[in-house]
Amino acid sequence: AGLVSPALVRVALLRAMAVLMQHLQSLRGELVVALIFAAFWAGFIEAVRRPMGRYVRGAAWWPRALPSQINVMVNFGYPKGETTEDMAIYGFIWIITMCITHVVSASLMGPVIILGWEGAGEAGQLLFFLGTLSEVGFDIYDWSKSFLLTFFPQAFPQLGPPGPVKAFVLVCILHHSTVLGMTIPMNLSYPFMAAYHQVGFSLLVSAGICYLAGQYKFTLDAKTEGGLDRIKKIMLVQFIVNWITRIFLWFPAIYTTLHSFYLAGDVPFLVGGSLAALGMSMYNLLVVLDATQAFLKWLPRSVSDVSSSKQA
Fold it and tell me: C-alpha distances in angstroms, 216 versus 56, 155, 273?
């Protein structure tokens, strides 16, 4: 007595799922859920980044990782010679938390990826919507925060160090704006499209794997045989995964998607999709180029090469 029966719990969950699915059939519903995710990711990331930063600063491997992290940030437009340790720790943690959001979002899409849109059923379809809106929420939070740190850094020092315009363009304009501009419209009009599922899932997984592996790579000692061997293996994984997801999967899927818009006579989606595809394609090509150059640079290196370069 007093216990809720499993049957009643199941009925309640099914009703809640049906209500949420109905809610997500409207622009207002999608925006509300995206903003809820934005608030969630903002709260989570802002709560964990400082404790994580203190852990990183005290880690035995951090002195090895620091120069590499600074080099990455310089490549994204941070001033050379002026990128401090505090800024590097902020960037190191940002990549890790970004990867967490990507992995969580991609995981929610799993049932649709494995079973297909119809095969996943209403529960799998709901999870797919939540996965896409989770990523939209993160991009809303990150775009807004990056905008403030790029153009009004002195007014919001508590958010982090000032950000360069180059990083804002690469990450927020080419990447985030594509997600923000296309995800909700696709959810409302073409949620069943397999190419849409494939692109969203593969790029999230690719970023999660490659960037997390890259952060781990920075912690390794390239002056030892074991460390150098692991670095080369990580770079091989990054090289392969980036080429598969950002070139061999991305471009055919984008062609299929845009061709479908064309055949349907859907001019707004054709134009908007083309612009979004252009921005994300530029971003993908830059990521693949960087991964390829790094792989070819490190592949022939030996421990003696690394030691001599460090001394120089």
Answer: 12, 33, 35
How many helices and strands in the chain, by DSSP H and E?
A: 12, 0
Contacts of 166 (CB under 8 A, 6+ apart): 76, 77
Q: Which amino acid is at 41?
A: W
- Crossing angle between the packed helical segments 121-151 and 6-23, to the nearest 10 degrees: 50
- Greater model confidence, 272 or 12: 272
The residue type at 285: L
Residue 217 — left, alpha, or beta (φ > 0 → left; ψ -120 to 50 → alpha)?
Answer: alpha
pLDDT of 4 > 80? The answer is no
Question: Helices 121-151 and 85-115: crossing angle, nearest 10°?
Answer: 160
Contact 176, 41 (CB under 8 A): no
* Distance in angstroms (rounded) separating the CA atoms of residues 22 and 188: 11
Name the pTM for this structure. 0.90
What confidence score (pLDDT) does residue 1 get? 45
Q: How many CB atoms lie within 10 A of CB 303?
A: 16
Q: How many CB atoms lie within 10 A of CB 19?
A: 10
Longest dimension (CA), the chain: 77
pLDDT over 90 (residue 7): no
Please count the other Cβ atoms lying within 10 Å of the Cβ belonging to residue 47. 10
How far is C-alpha 302 from the geometric centre of its chain's CA atoms?
32
Confidence category of residue 310, pLDDT binned at 50, 70, 90: low
Alpha helices, DSSP H, located in the chain: 6-23, 27-58, 62-75, 85-115, 121-151, 165-167, 177-189, 194-218, 225-243, 250-264, 267-298, 303-311
Share of the chain above pLDDT 70, in %: 97
Q: Residues 190, 108, 36, CA angle at the centre, nearest 5°?
A: 85
Query: What phi, psi does 98 have (nearest 5°)?
Result: -60, -40
Using left for φ > 0, alpha for ψ between -120 and 50, and beta otherwise, residue 260 falls in alpha
pLDDT classification of 2: cutoffs 50, 70, 90: low
| Sequence-distant (≥ 6) Cβ neighbours of residue 9 within 8 angstroms | none
